[in-house]
Amino acid sequence: MKKLFALALTVCFFTIFPAQAQAVIAQPGGASGGLQGSSETDEIFGTISPPAGVEKYDAASGEQIGLILFLSNIIKIGTIVAGVWVMVNFILAGWTYITATGDAKSHAEASQKMTYSLVGIALIVGAYTLAAIVGLVVFGDATYILSPSFTVIGGG
Questions:
Q1: Based on CB atoms within 10 Å of each CB, which residue in 74, 141, 153, 154 is the most buried?
Q2: For residue 94, is pLDDT > 60?
Q3: Cβ neighbourhood burial of 92 (10 Å; 0-12, 13-18, 19+)
Q4: CB 37 within 8 A of CB 28
Q5: Gap between the Cα atoms of 133 and 92, Å rounded
Q6: Based on the number of CB atoms within 10 Å of its own CB, is 120 exposed (0-12), middle (13-18) or buried (19 or more)?
Q7: Strand, coil or helix: what is 120?
Q8: Measuring CA to CA, how many Å separate 5 from each of 2, 9, 133, 144?
Q9: What angle (nearest 5°) sits at the alpha carbon of residue 126, between those of residues 96 and 58?
Q10: Coil, strand, or helix at residue 6?
């Protein structure tokens, strides 16, 4: 439980303070001062290069960490997949109901599929609502997580 809490706290910190996260990731010694960039730390820990594809998110987010943009894309893809799944289940439930021809078991199965489909669509709407509330409370903008826009502060 402590590890999960530490992970959640770290993700929240780097989400709220992307500039500090960029500094921690970009500097081999971290943002604490100490042996930053020294050959001793390079020999011990080596250098870390970002995984493939990260440059695309960094460029789209104004050279900041693209975590919010990445999470937004995951939410959008998940919503599309879940929406298609709900639609297919609802159609299959309707087909089962139409072809049941008076069979009580088939009617019950179709009703259960329709109920699950409605619960699924309610979960999708609830997830968007929760993301908007978290965005409003944490960032002051309800669309911050769902449709992020980044501005670069300072000249460069």
A1: 141
A2: yes
A3: middle
A4: yes
A5: 34
A6: middle
A7: helix
A8: 5, 6, 21, 23
A9: 115
A10: helix
pLDDT in tens, 105-151: 989 999 999 999 999 899 888 988 998 898 889 888 888 877 776 65
In the chain, % of residues over pLDDT 90:
17
CB atoms within 10 A of CB 64: 19
Q: For residue 144, give the 3-state DSSP assignment.
A: coil
Distance between CA atoms of residues 147 and 69, nearest Å: 8
- At CA 14, angle to CA 43 and CA 67, rounded to 5? 100
Of 72 and 116, the structure prediction assigns the larger pLDDT to: 116
| pTM higher than the cut 0.70 | no
The sign of the torsion formed by the CA atoms of 144, 146, 147, 152 equals positive
Instruction: Give the C-alpha separation, 28 to 19, whole Å.
Output: 16
